[in-house]
Design brief:
single chain, mainly alpha, two-stranded parallel sheet, globular, DNA-binding
Length: 99
DNA sequence: CTCTTGACGCCGG
DNA sequence: TCCGGCGCCAAGA
């Protein structure tokens, strides 16, 4: 199977600096292939091997899988959170990727 | 080959 | 703000 895509996704996620995040769509855009759903699939399969908590939805909100301790990581990394605390402040936490 | 489903995203109402 | 619809791509039944 094509683990190439999986590797590229996981590699990018590993490159996300602590305290920063990327959205599923952003990952797809940076890799310039697949889409948000493909990224989500990869994370669902092998996301456990990387910093899965650094990948959130486009609006900064979290998903079911993020509830298992992601907030602990955010607090530890000092990730900017929205007032409610159940979503990331995208305007500040979104990683400005550049190659 | 078709239909459903999903760690998604954007637009309306 | 909350909800629903449609588009998106790939995998499984």
């Amino acid at each position: 199977m094509d683990d190439g895509y999986t590797d590229r996704v996981l590699d990018l996620v590993e490159r996300i600096p602590p305290g920063r995040v990327l959205s599923y769509g952003a990952v797809a855009e940076i890799l310039d292939e697949g889409g948000p759903r493909q990224v989500g699939r990869v994370m669902a399969m092998d996301g456990g091997a990387v910093a899965w908590w650094r990948v959130v939805r486009a609006d900064g909100s979290l998903t079911a899988a993020h509830g298992m301790g992601a907030q602990e990581h955010y607090a530890e990394e000092g990730t900017p959170m929205r007032a409610n605390g159940h979503a990331v402040d995208m305007s500040r936490a979104l990683w400005q990727y550049r190659d």
